[in-house]
Amino acid sequence: MEHKTLKAQGLVKAYGKKQVLHGINIEFRPGCIYGLIGRNGAGKTTLLGCLTGQLRPTGGQVLYGEDLVWENAKALENICFSREMSTTFFAGPNTYKIRDYMRAARAYYPGWDEEYAQKLVAEFGLNVKKQISKLSKGMLSMVTIVLALASRAPVTILDEPVAGLDVVARQRFYDLLLEDFEQTGRTFVVSTHILDEASPIFEEVVVLDEGNIIAMDNTDHLLSVLHQVSGLEDEVDAAVEGMELISSRKTGRSKTVVVRCEESLLQRAVAGRPVDASRLNLQNAFIALTGHKEDSHDQK
After folding, report:
1. How many CA atoms lie within 13 A of 203 on its CB side?
2. How many Å apart are CA 86 and CA 135, to the nearest integer?
3. Which residues contact 13 (CB under 8 A, 6 or more apart)?
4. pLDDT tens digits for 54-106?
5. Beta strands at 187-191 and 155-159: parallel, antiparallel or unpaired
6. Rounded to an integer, what distance in angstroms lies between the CA atom of residue 187 and that of residue 202?
């Protein structure tokens, strides 16, 4: 199947008077693994719902290649949205079996790989005759992973795919995703809160905050320009003067800030000063970017 870019242009989504997404412009190009991160309530699930044709945008549009996604079955068969499965339907339990979901996926996705699906079922030790309502949270996650990977959809989006999995199973998922990516080159978008584990697989990272994209960059580059500087307040302020301030925290006479700048500039600025400067990992970078500078929470 031909791989195309999935993109949103001026995407707005509102529920009544509450606007959740504010004019989102974003492109997910073929052959890349993206990490989509944001705090609870940032609009991640709403964005993913619009990107995959499950929610109708209030404004703007979503395109797969040059084709609109909304109510376009031909475009949507190229996009797999894997999210937590419901164990209930209306007021009763979800009595569908794993094999029922696999049968539906086989009929829907043109690139469905039945041999690969059976291999994953065996690896995860799933009983396809078991009802969805009888599965543990970890097993539900395994089912969504099987459906997503075996779909072979050119754009595959996974929302919290490792919820409920233990550390061994989570690492196996990341290994499987990378193996599949190397074989197929399809686009993956992974939304997760477990950043320390997932960050090594993200080539690009998208940070969503209060319905706006506040960062979209190559992961290595983003982390190369975010730095933490700490020490006595006066020394820190002097060292980072003129730099873009991302976050700030004071404790007594000490201060810790995160700034965005090239490392060479930072090294010149802190040279000879009694301050500590270091890079951030993705989790700490995310905290700094979405903490809204935190100046109002400074401890006196």
Report:
1. 12
2. 10
3. 19, 20, 21, 43, 46, 47, 50, 55, 57, 58
4. 999 999 999 999 999 999 999 999 999 999 888 888 778 999 999 999 999 99
5. parallel
6. 11
**Nearest-angstrom CA–CA distance, 186 and 208:** 23
Name the pLDDT band for 294 (thresholds 50, 70, 90). low
Dig out the tokens for 253 from the structure.
Answer: 């006479």
Buried/exposed code over 79-113 (b: 16+ C-beta within 10 A; e: otherwise) = bbbbbebeeeeeeeebeebbeebbeebeeebeebb
Where is 174: in which H helix or E strand? helix 167-184
- SS3 (DSSP) at 22: strand
Question: Of 107, 108, 106, whose CA–CA distance to 116 is shortest?
Answer: 106
For residue 62, the cross-strand partners are: 8
* Helical H segments across 130-262, by residue range: 137-151, 167-184, 195-198, 219-224, 233-239
Strand partners, 187: 155
Is 262 a residue whose pLDDT tops 60?
yes
Q: In angstroms, rounded to a whole number, what is the distance separating the alpha carbons of residues 76 and 64?
A: 8
> 157: burial class by Cβ within 10 Å (0-12, 13-18, 19+)?
buried
For residue 241, CA distances in Å to 106, 230, 233, 265 come to: 58, 14, 12, 11
Amino acid sitting at position 180? D
Asked if residues 116 and 86 have their Cβ atoms less than 8 Å apart, the reply is: no
Q: Beta partners for 277?
A: 229
The two structure tokens encoding residue 232: 């006595």
Q: Cα-flanking dihedrals φ and ψ of residue 158, to 5°? A: -120, 120
Residue 287 in tokens = 């905290």
